[in-house]
Every structure is written in structure tokens, then in C-alpha cells.
Structure prediction request, 396 residues.
Amino acid sequence: MQSDKIKELDKQNVMQTYPRFDVVIERGEGATLYTPEGAEIIDFTSGLGVNSIGYGNKKWADAIHAQAMKLQHISNLYYSEPYVKLAEALTKRTGMKNVFFSNSGAEANEGMIKIARKYSFDKHGKGKSTIISLYQSFHGRTITTLAATGQDVLHNFFFPFTEGFRHVQANDIKALENELTDDVCAVMLELVQGEGGVIPLCPSYVKAVYELCASKDILLLIDEVQTGVGRCGTLMAFMQYDIKPDIVTFAKGIAGGLPLGGILANEKCSGVFVPGTHGTTFGGNPVATTAAQVVLDILDDKLLGEVIKKGDYIKEQIKSWDIPIIGEIRGRGLMIGISIKDKVPRELAQKCANNGVLMLTAGADALRMLPPLTITYDEIDKGLAILKKTLERTIL
Prediction:
């Protein structure tokens, strides 16, 4: 089917919730995509960080096929091997105690919020349920995770939002201290604010938050839906901040393209959920957890080290360009933001797509890059050359 026909059918039959870029993708190999007409496009987005090991990975596809033929789904009322093997791998590699599997990041964050509030209820009773998160944060699009999100532009239409959330400025420990009243049960952070502009939190601030929460028995919740699964150069980004969170969520890249998310809890929070307090039909699906095992196998220490090197390489290349609309280059690993001056990032991202490289936007002023973690230097150089030429032509 040709691109025009696909776009026509979308308009006729699909709810128009996405302002899609004007490009149709048919297939991919590595970090390179192709349109139905055969045009080649370098992917610096990996499906919003989902396709962590790129496209066309045979080991991943073969494992999925074998598991689908063996057992594609079984209720969580029964045991099966794939989810327990994945749980064991995740707990060993993160140092957390146990895991709950979900289908998405928003679901994982909903579950994390439930654990935090039940932990507090079990220990203190009613009245200690408020969660503090940061301005410019993004935690999902359910009613509750929108309330947790610190962006006013998203707090509209869907009233009433879930109560019990307050927001403070990032990297301001005094502002947080002032909000830690007796009704607060948890603080919720993204270590790099992705949708908010690819803004890393200051390590000293994160450590101060960790110590402050520990001193008051307030839970520290880390949303690693975008920063986790190797994106920042360690399996979870919190490993770079010298902290041990109480609860961590993950999703996006964990299954390499299949829907899977989850919640990791430390010893203190590991027994909060008991039968009847939380559940899911598809979470821990055998096919998705099998895919995730392959992803974890691929994301060994060598590859994670390469993520940091590739991210540094990309940032150094962009910093060397004499293009006046480029501002700050920020991020960790292969989660990179490029602030843009006096131009609309979305318009630039569409021009990039037209020229052969996919880019994302973040916040009000930034282009965002989330390439597959397995991207080659050749693909990086091709994509950067297109990006550079696009930005240069924009200022002519």
C-alpha cells in the first residue's frame, strides 16, 4: 500500500489524537527505516525510545516466534517460565527486591502511586497520601498520571483530576523541603525530564532528595519509563546517581518493540501489594517477557558503555557546528536534547523527516534524539549530516 493511501485511511478511520509527521514507515533494518516507496530514513527516535535494539533483530524475532508457537498468553492466575526468568534478571541487575509487570509506562506509574499510598496507609492510616513531583515532569496520560505530571498545559478538559499531587521546581531542595508536610507520602522524579525538554536533574539535588526522603520515611519514586533500560548508559539511570530508590518504573525499550512495563520495589515496599490489591490481564505476557529477556541479554556492560560513548560522540559533533539557532546540548547517554533558538522545533522535525532523518521534540524549545541503542556510527554520521544540512538551510 502506498503512502497516500495509508494516510487517507488513517484520516477516515482513526481518531485524530496524534499530529503525525507527514511520513509513512513500512520497514526497518538496524536504525534505518524505509517508506513504502523505498526512501531511506535514519531513525533518531526508535519509536519514542521503544525499539531499543533497532529493527530486524533476528535473535529477538526468533525468540518471539518460538514463544508464540509454544504459549502466547496465560492468565496471571497461573505460573509460567518467561516472566519469572525476566523478573529474576531484573532484580539481580538492579538490586531491587521484586517486580510487577504491566503493559505500559502510564500503567506502571499508576501502580507505583498505588504502592506508595498503600505503604503509607498500612503504616500511618489515612491522611498521608500526597505525592510531590516536579514542574515540567511527565508521567503519563491517564487521569491520575496527568495529575502527577507537572505541566499546566496538560491539566485541562478531563476534570476532575485525581487529588493528592503537588509540584515543585526541579533542583531546588529548599522548595521541596517546604512542601514536605505531614500529608506527604512520596516524592516522584524523572532523573532526566524527557517530555519536559531533556533536562537532567543535578546529581547533588537527587542525592539530597534521597537523603531527605530517607530521613522522613517518605518514599522516593523514580520514573524510568524513558530513562531506563540502557537509555542513559546504565541499565537504569538511577545507577548513575548514587541512590537506591524505593520504587522504580520502566517500560518503552524493555521488550524491544512489544508492549511491556513494570514496577521494581525495594525490600521495604516489596510486600505492599497483596492478592486483590492490584492486577492486570496482559502484564507479564509470555511473548513480551521472552522478548525482554533477549533485550536484556543484548544490553550487556559492553553495549551500555557504547551507549555513553555514542551519546558523547553525537553531542560533540553537534557542538562543533557553527549554526546560530543551536543552543544548549543536554542529556545522558542516547537521550539527547538540542535547544533551538527562534525556530519552532516541530517544523524543524518535519523538515528533517522530509530530508531523511527522524527527530522528536521536547518541551517548548528542543529537538530530541532517542536512537536505537544499537545504532552504528555509520548510521549516526548519516543522520547527523542530514540534520546539519537541514538546520543550515533553515537559517539561509
The two ends are 37 Å apart (CA to CA).
